[in-house]
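User: Sorry, folds how?
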Amino acid sequence: MTEKVFNLFVAAVIGFLLCCGVYFYVTEDKPNPATTTPATEAPPTPPPANEDQKQKPPANEQNQQKQNNEKDKQKEQEKNTQNDENNKQKEQDQNKDEKAKPSDNLPEVVWGIDSASETTKDFYACVKENFGDPVVFGRYIGGREGVSVGLTADQVKIIHAEGDFILPIYNHFNDATGYDNGVAHAKEALKIAGEIGIPEGVAIFADIEPDYPVDAEFIKGWFDTIVGSKYKSGIYGVFDPEQALFKAYQEAGKSKAAILEQNYIWTAAPSVGVTSESKAPEFNPSAPEGSLAWGWQYGLESKSCNIDTNLFKRELVDVLWGP
């Protein structure tokens, strides 16, 4: 073989090998270049299913829920009703407090009389002609032979026709000792008061005369029984510091504070003599300290008309039997 042929052969082999190398290079697997995929929005959240589309609870759960709702509604109605009643009661109490009282248009101290005699039109004429025009008239309830003529319905009409307030006096005893005795006489006073029609809230006065034996227990028995009824408690007597009544009342007030706070005193001390309305003294009653001494019988046993003369704080008429 010649050298020329040999060179051609070598060149052909080399060319073949180069072609094979190019082929394998081109067809070799290569990683794809990294690409960025555009971000896409998340699909919107579907709206909540319609209530009607929700699965319904079992029937027993529905009934229980219905019962609970009815109970809650009933409780709310009861609460509203109670609130309405409370507000109505408060309004009534406020109106009651604001209601005009009989004493509102009276002077601070008013003039009055008391008498054991029968009340007639002629009697009133005598009083007005000789003494004045009373605002308060003390009268005994239930007759006591030889002592006092009891108040009657006809006499009540005469007194109220004059525009006067009746101060009821109970005098059916001559011994003011013992708790049970006080209770018994208070019950009798309540009985008589009911029979003659004395209205609720009126004070009834026990007449304890200066010669009667008296103790704190009687006062407490009287007070407890009267205030336990629809009436208010009062006591008449000579509340002079030297009198047994004064000391008994002090003792009763110390052991039962409500007596000082709620019982009304009509005292016959000091006694300065009967006068006409125009010549009445300044209001100056004698009574235990801290007591409701709202009445003062300053003059005893007039020579005409058979009356005693008195002064009263105007507030007392609010607990008397008015026209």
